[in-house]
Write a structure and sequence with these properties.
Layout lengths: L26 H41 L4 H26 L8 H16 L1
Helix pairs in contact: 1-2
Length: 122
């Protein structure tokens, strides 16, 4: 999806029924902020998953080798890693769901839809 031909969309303030003016929304800036938050959350989850999975499995394998106990400690460490991975993903989803979502007026929603439709045509 190339956005090189798409002009940045900025909405101007309009008055609504209540007499309030909606604030201008720079759609490219909002999209960029959302993408940055997604990337940060994903990278944070990735290193946590690496630690939660690799450390117990490597320790279990080394203990199996030192104690000559077959692979039982490695399997136990793998099971603990699976539980830890689920907890890390659950925590990342909780953080992602707590991120603020901008409230758009009906006019702003129409402008966003039009921008996406124009982008799809190109």
């Amino acid at each position: 999806m190339s956005t090189s031909n798409v002009k940045p969309a900025t909405l101007s303030p309009t008055s609504s029924k209540g007499g309030k003016k909606s604030t201008p929304v720079d759609l490219d800036a909002a999209r960029s902020t959302a993408q940055r938050q997604f990337v940060n959350t994903t990278l944070n989850m990735m290193w946590q998953l690496a630690v939660v999975v690799l450390v117990p499995v490597v320790i279990g394998a080394q203990l199996d080798k030192a104690l000559d106990s077959g692979h039982i400690l490695t399997y136990i460490a793998l099971a603990l890693s699976a539980v830890g991975a689920v907890l890390v993903m659950w925590r990342a989803m909780r953080i992602a769901n707590s991120l603020p979502v901008p409230k758009l007026s009906a006019a702003q929603k129409r402008a966003v839809k039009k921008a996406y439709d124009d982008e799809d045509e190109n």
